[in-house]
Amino acid sequence: MPNIPFDTVLAQIDAILAAWGMPEPTRAVAARAMAETDLMGVDSHGISMLPMYETLLRSGALNVAAEPRLLRETPATAVLDAGAGLGHPAAAAAMDLAVRKAKAVGIGAVGVVNSHHFGAAGWYSRRAAAAGCCGVALSSARGVLVLPTGGAEPMLGTNPLAFAAPIPGAAPFSLDMATSAVAGNKVKVHALQGKDIPPGWVADASGAPMTDGAAAWAMLGGAVAAGRRPEGGLAPLGGPGITGGGHKGYGLGVMVQILSATLLGEPFPPLHQARRRPGEGDRIGHLLIALDPAAFGGAEAFGEGMTELAAALRGSRPADPAQPVLIAGDPETAAMARRAAEGIPLPDSLIALLRGVAERAGAAVLV
User: Fold this and answer.
1) pTM (two decimals)
2) At 66, which CATH number?
């Protein structure tokens, strides 16, 4: 795969969003969120999302000109309306507001309603950590792809959750995970790269595991593009049964749905799909939370504790001496350094898709 410099990836995203009519302030946030996600090695949620965003734009569901609007506010909470725009600008504004509230009263929790896909949840929790706070990011999802434990039809989205905590003088602890066995877009990445997927990620309509990446994404991606549920689906985190803990992943997925959508008045996706009007937005919800360590055990004590915790975990005896124990966020931090120097690998199949998106938009083709 060719490696594309970070600045080129950022410029290509920005050029396409500009051609679609997205205003500069919100466009700058969305483009940086997507490009930095690719820089972190999360290829499923960066520039590869543009073809899906184009589909939403052409359907009339996505309002790229939207700007976040404050709906209600208390000292510790608020709700923003994303205006059926891309979720990145609204979620970033929500986390920044949550951090300001946390600095004032110890905790801030800001919801976002009437939104679309917001990329990688970890980009927002890291944003809080960079400001000295612990950050939590939760989101509902557009696609109904995940099978409940014991179920034969998808009922949930991949419903991601992320948590980040600052470590003085170092990269943060940064957990970013889907509540399904894998994010749906990781299946897309395997399909674009011509790779098989591990058994246990996706099941077909009969419940049999699928391993052909292209076939699995054709089933999942085709359903998402059409705004319907696939015949099969993704397993919850832990797998399809209870022996691997799949019931725990299922429960986490429902919890994220409640906190990021139901709590904010947003609909349950399978019900929204059934009664959605043409051109209506996805009505995805996000919840961004910030906690200021100074309001709890004290910022200095927290920093010392995080430094010791990270050192103890990394210094623990590994099962394989060649594979040291890591903490959440270490792989992304390493990827950022590597890709900043070498560029971001993009498969030829994705480059072809991106060139088509740019040409149809009337934007410069930069990749």
Assistant:
1) 0.94
2) 3.30.1370.60
